[in-house]
Every structure is written in C-alpha cells, then in structure tokens.
Amino acid sequence: MFWSKTRKALRARGVMGINQRNGDYILRYNKRSLYPLVDDKLQTKQMALDAGIRVPELYGAIATEQGISTLHRVVETHRDFVIKPAQGAGGDGIMVIADRFEDYFRSASGRIVTTEELEHHISGIISGIYSLGGHRDQALIEYRVRSTELFNRISFEGVPDIRIIVLQGYPVAAMLRLPTRQSQGKANLHQGAIGVGLDLSSGVTLGGTWHNQRIERHPDTANAVAGLTVPDWEECLELAARCYDLTGLGYLGVDLVMDREFGPMMLELNARPGLNIQIAMDDGLLRRCSIIEDHLDSLGNIRRPVAERIAFSKKHFAVAGPVPVSEPDSAVTP
Amino acid sequence: MIWGVLLFTFITAIGLSVRSYLEHLKLQLLARLSIVLTFVVILMAVISLFGYKLGVSSGLSVALFPMVILTMVIERVSIVWEERGGTQSLKVALGTLVAAVLCHLLMVWPPLVYFVFTFPGVLLCMSAVMVLMGHYRGYRLTELMRFRAMVER
C-alpha cells in the first residue's frame, strides 16, 4: 500500500511524529513543574538576565486595568517598541510599533494606530484572550529588534528568527524562520512563515519549507534562501546550549533573533517545539536525537560542559554533501 | 435530534451576536461570560415556554441543554473568530456539531445501550484500549501527508 511505503520511508529517514515527540521526548525530558519558566516570557527574561544572556530590553509590564494608564509613561522615551502577551502562544497578540506620527503610532506594517487602540489591545492581553487556557495575563512592552541587512533581503517585513532545538544541552537542529506577506510579519510556520534549514556546523542556510512543501526561493522577494551564512553562529549555538543548563528542560526549542546593533538575543523558549524543522533541514529529528541519546548513554549521563557539547553536535550534524544514513537504528523501530 | 441541532445552532448564533455586541463595550472576561450565560438562560426559558404552549414536547427535553457548556462554546467560538477569522470559527463550530451528532447517534443505538448497561465492565476494557492508544508512538495519518515532501525525490 502507498501509506505503508511512506511510513517505512519516513522511518528510514528517522522522521519524528507528534505522538513520538510528546511521549518519548517532551513527557520524558521536560518536567511539568518547569513549564512556567518558559510559558511566561517575563520569567524567562528574568532568568536569562540573571544568567547574563542577552534579551530584548523590557521597558515595562502591565498587569492590571489601572496599570494601562501608565502606558504613556513607559513608552514616552521610546520611538518604537513591541507589545506582547507574557503567556502568548504562536505569535498571537503581538503588536509592533515602528514609529510615531504626531500623536499617533505607526505599526510595523505602516498602519496608523491610536492610543485608544493600543490600550484596548493591552486590555485584551490582560484579560487573557491570547494566553494559553485563557488565564489572566500581563502585557510586556519591550525593545523592538531591528534585523540585519542580510536578513532583510530574504524576508518580508517582520524580523526573522533562529530556532534551535536542544536535546539535553546538545543542539540537534536549527532553522531560520522568515516572515512572509501571508504570515503578516510573524515568524511562525503555521501562520505562513517559511523555515530554512541551517547547517549546524557552519550556520549556512540550506533549503526551505513553506506549508509543508520544499521551496528554494522566498515567495515574496523571490530571492534564493540557500547559501547564506548566519552571522555570529558560534554565539547562537552557545546561547542555545546554555538555555538547557538554565531551565533544566531536556527537549527545548530556543528562539533567537539577530539584532542590528546588539547581535544575537534570546527571544523566547519553547517546551513543545514544532516538527516542521525536519522538512526545512530535510533530515529526521529522531535520527539526530538517537545519536545524542546513544552518546549520553555511553557517557553514563554525566552533564558535559557547553563547549564540548557544541563540538559534538557540530561534528555529527554537519551537512557536507548528503546526510549519512548508516546510523544503527535498532532503537528507533517501534 | 433535529431539534437538538437546530437549538444548538440557534442559541450559538444568538449568543455570538450578543457577544459581538459586548465586544464594543470592552468588558472584562467574567462580566462578559455572565451576560452571555444570562442570555442563554433567557433563550432557553423562552424556547421551553413556546414548546409547552405549542405542545411540542421535544422542545422541553432539549431545553435541558447544559447551559454553562453552551456559554463556553460561544466564548471559544468567538475567540477563534477574532483570532483566526470567520471561516475558521465556522469550521470549529461545525466540527463540534458533527462530533456531538455522531456521539448522540451512538448513544441512542439500542444494541450498544443494552450491551454497556448489562456489562458495565466493558467500560474498563475501553479504558484499557485507550491506555494502549496512549502508548502509540508511530505516525498519524495526517503526518504521512505532512512529511510527504521528505520522501519525494
């Protein structure tokens, strides 16, 4: 049958499915009690600051309806800023103010926004319409990241970000997420952004994925997505690997952004990272994760220093020509 | 059952329009929910009154619809409407309706009713099956579609 052939082919490539990700990785490596650390962006930010990891500067947080009136004081000294829910998911509820015009604000897409609209948006965030499970939430007002020239060429509005998946402190997969016209400046794949696989050893872009298909050019700008080098790649890997020691979450998606002035910054962490990164990299996560798990078993599960972990990942996940498929896969058959 | 489907559609639609009006008032979550709940109760009172006067007994029986659940359905659907647009929210509402109808049809199927009531142990067997399903680590059917690009070359 056609289906069983597809299934076998996916198995052979070590592609991870949702059930397997949830059961064998998220439930196994991520303790539920640690979730609030990453689901609440305010806590994540605080933790990162304490550890000396660079994050977009927080201008202010608003937690109550009365607090909304302090908005003008918070943004007084800033021409541009971002408003986002502390516990949002999937990029919903994020409003980017890029400039001002007389008494109005101008959003990143060029729309004029009044102060009342801004306040109503914050009120919505606080009452929890964007938060997971509809709990009350806080609105964060923070520094607007401006992306580098290189990334502007291959993305449409918005700021591209880098997603690195880290297993037990070892980077296993990386992709660049580029906003499109359809995703309205957001870098989330399910909203129509494209994902471009990255070579873990060098930070060079590979092929891309858009709506589960493989693509070679950005749909809006028509520029080729492959062959670019992400600047400060070493620093990105180190930031991502350190996030494991920081949170204790064994299966973690780390989102980084590249700021024009400040370089790589940690934007947020994700305890349930998506699986489309596999299409972007054209390689299976299960295959890569098994390599790390075998390695950890052989070490007796001792935590190694960051530099050593990165060196291991770079050595095994370098994409020089075709990906080797000769790994023992006895552990992966169901 | 026809009555149930009609009532569900009717009440949800009215609830949604009330909810969209409340949106302009920019109310807090709890107040908003309470108002929608009140409207759901009023609607049901009216419906069962009419049903009684017109002698339609089925109107009464479905009027015992769980009110709070209906209110939550309205709230969820309207949030989806705001965040993902009308088509998506209609899809969600239709999906709920279809699932409810299927469950209803199954629950009134006499052989099944007889079987489960005579042998309640069947429920334990069902939960055993669910435990097994929870251990499934393979691909879902949708994933075979989703990752198709990775095996084509």
Write a concise keyword list for the protein shown above.
heterodimer, A: 334 residues, alpha+beta, D-amino Acid Aminotransferase, Chain A, domain 1, Dna Ligase, domain 1, 2 domains, 7-stranded antiparallel β-sheet, 6-stranded antiparallel β-sheet, 13 strands, 32% helix, globular, B: 153 residues, mainly alpha, 82% helix, 0% strand
- Give the SSE order of chain A as H and E letters: HHHHEHEEEEHEHEEEEEHEEHHH
Terminal-residue CA separation of chain B: 50 Å
Poorly predicted runs of chain B are: none
Structure summary, number of beta strands of chain A: 13
Number of domains of chain A: 2
H/E series of chain B: HHHHHHHH
Average pLDDT metric of chain A:
87
CA(first)-CA(last) distance of chain A: 19 Å
Organism (chain B): Alcanivorax jadensis T9
Domain 7 transmembrane helices usually fused to an inactive transglutaminase (chain B): 1-150
Keywords (chain B): Membrane, Transmembrane, Transmembrane helix
Pfam family, one (chain B): 7TM_transglut
